[in-house]
Fold this protein.
Amino acid sequence: MEQLTRVHRRLAGSGPGGRAVWRKSSHSTPNGACVEMAQPPDGQVWFRDSKAPAGPVIALSRGAASAFTSAAGRGDL
């Protein structure tokens, strides 16, 4: 939980690289149910719920993010 709190604070733009640029999934639905992803300069990959941009963020290494998105694409999650 400590990691997520630190990442959430950095979303406000206080990190050394400035604000993260969030992108919506290409599988986003018209009702807004989608996942957003950002790649901050520190080499992590962040995921959040687009309906709750101030909510929690999942911070993963690039390798873990690749495994996560592959598993989600296969329907394994």
